[in-house]
Structures are given as C-alpha cells and as structure tokens.
# Entry
Amino acid sequence: MDEPERRADTLADGLRRLLLLYAPLFAVAVGFAGYRVLGYSGMTILGWLPGALSLAVASWFLFQASRLDRLAPAGRRFWRLMGIAALLIAPATKPLTEASLGGRKSGPVLAGAVLLLSIALLLVLWGLLRLPTRSRSRGDWLRLGLDAATVLVCSATFLWQFVLEPISDARADLPRALGLLVLSLLCLLAVLAVVKLILVGTDAVDMLALQSLAGVVLLGAVGSALVPVLQNDRLAGVSDIITTAEGTMVGLAGVVQLHRVRPATVVRRRRRPYSILPYSAVVGVYLLLVANSGDGPVLAGAVAATATVVLRQLLAFRDNDALLGTVREHQRLLHEQATHDALTGLPNRSLFNDTLDAAFHGAAILVDLDDFKTVNDTLGHHVGDGLLVEVGRRLRAAVRPGDLVARLGGDEFAVLLPLADEAAAGEVAERILAELANPITTHGHLLTVNASVGVAQRPASDDPQLLLRHADIAMYAAKQAGKGQFARYSPSLAGLLATPAQRADELRAAINAGRVELTGEPIARLTDGAEVERRLSARWPSVDVADLTVPLVRWLLTEACRVTPPGRPFTVDVSRSALLAPGFPHDVAGILAAAAVAPANLTLAVPAALAGEDTGEGTGVRGALQELRAIGVGLALDHTGTAHARLDLLVSLPFTRLVLDAALFPTAAPVPANAPFPANAPFPADTPFAADGRFVTDAPFPADGHFPTDVPFSPERHFSPDGHFSPGGHFAADGLDRRREALVDAVARLIATTGVETVISGVRDPGQVARLRHLGFTLGTGPAVTAVGDLRLSSH
# Structure
C-alpha cells in the first residue's frame, strides 16, 4: 500500500474513534435539549457535562498531537497551548452558559469562569501569533490585512449585536460588563489571528486542522447569534448542543493533525489567489442589517466592512494594472527574444523572413565574414563575439533609414532593402564594404575584417524566399572571385549552390535547350606555331567542367564530330563518371560511326590522377582504356595542372599521347651582363678562347663540355656582355639549378625513349619555347605557342 492510501486509512480510523467517543456525548446533549423542550427542568448536569467532557477529550487529542516528532517545534508548542486552553475552558462552560442565557448574574463562580476563559483565550491568541506564516510580499500583507480587517469589523458587529448591546440595555453591573468586554476583545483578537493564519497559511501545522479550529469560532458566533432565542427555558438545551459541537470540532482538529501529516515529497496544492471569507462576512452583516431594520451600530459595521472591501478592490485594481503592465513587458521581452539576436540585438532570421514579404521590388544583401572561424580558434570566442557586435553596429550605420539589418546566424548577416533598385542596393553594398574595411578593436586586439557580400533583386513575381537564396548564391560568387568584394546575382549563377542531383537535372535541361557551348584550344607546333589539332571542351556557367557528367561527355563527342573537318584529328576531355559508365566504349564507337569519323582521329584526354586509381587487369579504369584502345581511339595521359609526370603509367596502360604541364619545365634565369664565371664551371678544351682570357663573342658553349685544367683563368675574369653559356642562352647559378637542369634533361630523354607523342600544355613564356624545342618536344598549347586563343565552335 502506498503512502497516500495508508494516510487515508489512518485518518479514517481516527475519525471512527472520534465518533465512538463523541456520539454518546451528543446523545446526552440532544436528549437533555429534548427534555427541556418538553418543559421539564432539573438534572442540569446532563446539559453542561457533555460540553465539558467534549473539551476534556479534545484536549487529550491535542496533547497527543503536541508529541508528534514529525512536527516542527512551533507546531508542537501550538498544540500544547491549545490543549491547555481546552482544559481551562471545560469547567467554565456551565457558569458561562448560564450567564449568557440570563441565569447567573454574578458571584465567585462566574468570576472564576471568566478568569479561566480569559487565560484560555490568551493562550490561544499567543499560540496563534507564534505560528510562523508563509513568506509574503508587502503587497500581499496589505491585501490580507484588509481582508482580515473586513472579517474583524463584521465579527465586532455581530458581537455588539448579540453580546455587548444586551448587556448595555440591561444596565448590568460594572464588573460583569467589563469582564464581558475584555472577553469580547480577546475573542476578536483570536478571530483576527485565526483569520490571518487561514488567509496566509502556515507550514507548522496542518491547515485542515487549523480550519477545524476556525469552525469553533464559527459555532461560537452562531451560538452568540442565537442567545436571544435560547433565553427561552424550553430552548436552553440547544446551547449545550452547540458547546458539545465546539468540543467535537476541537477534537477533530487534533485527530486531523495526528493522522494527516503531509510528507515532504508531496507538492503543496496551489491556493486560490483570493478568499471568500471576507465577502461572506460582509454578506452576514448585511443580512443582520436587514433583520434589524437599519439599526445604527449594525449600519455602522456594514459601512465600515463595505469601506474595507472597496479599498481592497481598489488595491486589487491597482495590482491588476501593474500585473498587466508586467505581462505586457514580459510579452515584449519574449517577442524580443524570439525575433532578435541575443548577442548583437539585431533582428534574427525569424523576423527577417516575416518582413521579407514587404520587400516587393526590393533587394536583399547577404554579408558573410571571411575567415571568421580563424578569429574564434586563435583568439577565443569572446573576441569573436565582440567582433560580431561591432560588425552589427557598422552594418546599421551603412544602411538607409528603414532598411532591416538581421543576423541570420554565426558570421552571416542580411540586409533587407524595401523598394531599392539595383543602383541603390549596390551603393549600400559598397558602403558596407567600406565600413568593414576599417580595422576593429575588441578585447585588446586590432582586427581587419573582410566580408563577401551578395546582392539580389526581387521582382514582384518571385517567391519571397528566393530573394535570400539568390543573395546567398551571389555571396558565394563573391567568395570565389577573391573575397572582400560584392557580387550581384544573375541567372548564370543559379547552379552555384546546386546539389549534384540538381546540377544533373539542370545540365540535362541545358543540353536539351542548347545552352552548352563547345570551345576549342589549338594544339600547335613549337617550331612555327602552326595548328595541327584541337582540344575540345564544354562550357556551361553553372557546371564545373572538371566534373563532366556522362550526358555532357556524350554531347561533347557528338558536337566535336560535327564541327571538326573530315580527316582532322581532335582531342576531347573525359571524366571519371563517363569513363567508368557501363557501355561507354560502345557509346563512343557508335557516335564515331554515326558521324563517319575514324576512331584514330579521336584522342580522349584522361586525367593522370584518374588513370592512377585502378590498374587491375581488365577492370575499372584499365578495362575501359583497353576497350577504347581496342576500337582504335587514341588515349592521352593528361598532367595539365600538375608539375610532375607519372611516366610509369605509359608502360602499364595503353596511352598513345602524353600531356605535360609547362610548369614541369621552368625557365632558368638569364645570364646578366659581366657575370663572374664560377671557378668550378666545366669548359671544353677545344672551345675558341680569346687571348685576353675572355670568351669569343659568338662562341657557343656545349652542354657537355669540360674546363681544361691547363687553361689559365682567374676568378676575376668576366663573360663578355654578348657571350652565352649553353645553347639556350642561360647560366646555371649554382649546383642545385644544374642538378634540376640535369633531371629535366633526363626526363626529356626518358620520354623520347617511350616513343609516345608529347604535348606541353599552358606554355606562356616565349623563352620557354626555345628550351622545349632544345629538349626535343614538338607540340604545345598556350599563348606562347600560337596566337590563336580559345575558339567558340558551337552555340545553340
């Protein structure tokens, strides 16, 4: 059985014991009341004894509650004081009841009863005031004080009506009047203390038990109200029933405290933010006013109670207004948090998107800080945060009034320019770059910030969200162009951020629509620059031609066959995806057959990195190359863009041509005028040599010559200004350059032994052409080889 059920059963057991003890007392009290109603008198002990015994039994329950270890010391003290008070009131019930009903007027017995009651009320008041209350604010105490004052005024009105006024009308003796007045004041104070605890609450005792004690006060008020009626001898027994009921309520409080202790893990039930007790008291006073036909003191009590209620409501109105102001401020703060960036205070992506719909015919600017991650990684995130705050401030300073500056996240900012045309957007972008160009000082660091800025316009017909995407694409275009600048969006940039699947779909649509161009680069002789062949490639703005797809390679082959004159050789680039595509050699053969082009006229350029991926016999790259070579297609091992040569692949794979980058053959430094001749330079013995120790002007120096040991030559001798060292007209300054020259010569001789035709690509230095010819190469591409640039051969 869990804890809540065990507590319920224990409380039920306690209530059953309480019923067994108090049922006989109630039976006697009710029986005596009936006895008096029938007109009998005498046997008064049967009237007052049940009330006295009920209080005595209740004190036993209260003393039991005061010994509970699980109660706080304040709670145990309270129940101990309540138990003593109940014992003091028990013997005073008979004389006090007789006095209230007009029987006993004075005497030592009544005086003793009044003294006992006064001491008991003082103990009750002391115990109530010593109970700790729950924490409340000043405003809460003011409101609760007004509620307690309302109840106090109403209680005083009832006390006057039913106790004090009858005494004053009867012109009772002074001691009795003063005693009852003191008792009345003590009762009012006790009522005030009980009301305060009920309204405020306490954790020292069980609140249900405290409410049971409040029921005693309510029964006392009912008894006081019935005094004029109960002064009839036949109804006097009802007073004894009320006293017995009061003792029962006191005992119930003890039973509840004994058997209903809430464990610490139970969450306290939320109290109502208001209490109906003050309003109930006011209603009671107005009913009393109606019953007494506007009696003066009762009317005064009603007016006073109403005034406290009105004041309480005015305070409630003020508190409600303050609460509404707080709620509105919280709503503003929540909206601010939901729509603004916490670091920079700028609008966030959510507010930017919400505002985007208002930018018809407007523009958007996307700003991305270049290399911002380096700042965080090297200087710390606090420096990066300071940098972002300053960037946000400068962006606000650069835009126009009414423009929206937002931080989308990380180091990415956006500006929304309603109704801005292309010129206005460009001016704002330039001001942004100018603002960010100035160094930024944050946390003791001087930082230089570069940003890539993308600008996009939005026609009214566009989807609003496309505007931000277009600005994003333009920003990436600015990054690719070198950072620190701005770029405008154009349809040609549409595929810049496309996924591979999107790119394939767009490429297929571009091929079908004829938006792909065929371009050519001449392959010419190094001797005279005459074109002997063309290397053809595809150009499409939104496609990286280094990653040619299968459809693009097929289109490229078809177009190359169409535009190349019959019988003239041509070269076409091939990608990994196309080379490894199933049936690609068969497709090549079919395209060549359809165009009536001999396979020997076609050379496919295969990147060296791709050729070195797979050398397995008959599989992968090797298998595809062997199939292509079997149908007669030439294969070029392409090293374009790399300053090295994989000559081993010429042996393992069926390549018919080698393409080397011109960077593999750097041009040596020319010999300066009057350059000193190094002491260890080789020199042939049979070379013409002037008598004065200088070279003859037109004497060539063989590359393999040696310097004779018997020829006098001093270190201070110099070349003649027009003399040359080596046929290429260059001078090797140190041993390292001489070794590199020797290696280049060795590579050239090794290539020559393979018998593979070689093309040098990207020759830009005219002086390099002579050197390449000297090394035995015959073909090349680039502006230094031929004056013919790139050719646009087809465009639909």
In short: The chain has a mean pLDDT of 75. The first strand starts at residue 363 and ends at 369.
